[in-house]
Amino acid sequence: MKISFVIPCYNSAGNIESVLREIKEAMEPHPETEYEVVLVNDCSRDGTAGLIKRLAEEDRHLIAVDLAKNVGQPGALLAGLHYVSGDYIMTSDDDRQTPVGRVFDFLSEIEKGYDVVCARYTEREQPSLFRRMGSALNRGMSDWLIQKPKGTYMAAFFMARRYIAEEMIKYRQPYPYISGIILRITQNVGNLDVEQRSRNSGSSGYTLKKLLRLWMNGFTAFSIKPLRIATGTGLLLAFLGFLTAVITIIRKITVPGILAGWSSTMAVILLVGGLILIFMGLIGEYIGRIYMCINETPQYVVKEITGYEGKKKDKD
After folding, report:
1. 8 Å CB contact between 12 and 73
2. pTM, rounded to two decimals
3. 2-222+298-315 architecture in CATH?
4. pLDDT digits (tens, 9 = 90+) for 161-220
5. What does the pLDDT look like over 264-304, one tens digit per residue?
6. I want to staple 93 with a disulfide (CB 3.0 to 4.6 A). Which of 98, 127, 166, 181 is the partner?
7. How far is CA 296 from each of CA 70, 72, 81, 268, rounded to the nearest angstrom?
8. What are phi and psi of 126, to 5 degrees?
9. What span, in angstroms and rounded, lies between the C-alpha atoms of 18 and 293?
């Protein structure tokens, strides 16, 4: 049996070695189980690229993948999945917040018959109100838009069977959303309770812009429900407009001297006009993404790989 770890790395020069030590310490008591670690440098601005390349040259268990441009954690994760050879694939963050040393707890859980086992955080190192609100919004979106099974928690820290990884990399569109891709393949997802630890150093790579981009990927890549909301809202406003017109005519007939309300008219125009522009923007977002997919915008571009060719030759 072999376990493959995939770790997207972004500005993680101060953390990644401790993550690798934790994996090594977890695997050493199980010499019968082979393992490999695929480290994907997502165009880091520090010395991460050179560090993971050197580590891959020194350790036969490591593969270093260097991307040509920053594509975000989902894209980097899918890039790493192309180079795994294990029977089970486990993901991890690069900042030591995810307890990757519990790999065999995940393995025990997945052997109960699950296709994927995701971490369910009982405690999270997330002091920012903004980040807590963002996580809550992301969970709510998953529940409603992509029909996540009730009571199931999705997370970027998970273990999956090999066939899941093979299906995931078939998704070639430039706007990946990992939870949506997994749930498109299977809904046989289990959970394991874990605690999220504090970062060793640095700060989260998820800025407001990147979080909004991630949420938009979830909204537009795997569901047309937002478009149906736009249609429903348009029908509701049309009905209210018709009802208002009828009431206005009746009032004018019954009370001829009544004055028309300029302020209320402007308020309605601004409200309806604003909603129209919002929904036109939403439709435009869908159309733009369709264009980018037809244009075959790459999900990621690999600049350099260290360690993979040697392992490939050994297998051949």
Report:
1. no
2. 0.75
3. Alpha-Beta Complex (3.90)
4. 999 999 999 988 887 888 888 988 999 999 999 987 776 655 555 555 666 666 666 666
5. 676 677 677 777 877 787 787 777 777 666 767 788 899 99
6. 98
7. 17, 18, 20, 42
8. -145, 75
9. 38
Question: Beta partners for 35?
Answer: 3
Going 216 to 292 to 290 to 67, the CA torsion angle's sign is: negative
Closest CA to 2 of 29, 35, 30, 26: 35
Cα dihedral 151, 100, 206, 201 sign:
positive
Domain spans, the chain: 2-222+298-315, 225-294
Partner residues linked to 159 by β-bridges: 90, 117
Backbone φ and ψ of 61, nearest 5° = -80, -10
| 135-143: long-range pairs with CB below 8 Å, 24+ | 137/215, 138/214, 138/215, 138/218, 141/215, 141/218, 141/219, 142/179, 142/180, 142/218
Token output for 228: 């149906």
CA atoms of 76 and 299, how far apart (whole Å): 9
Q: In degrees rounded to 5, what are phi and psi of residue 266? A: -65, -40
The residues near 250 (Cβ < 8 Å, ≥ 6 apart) are none
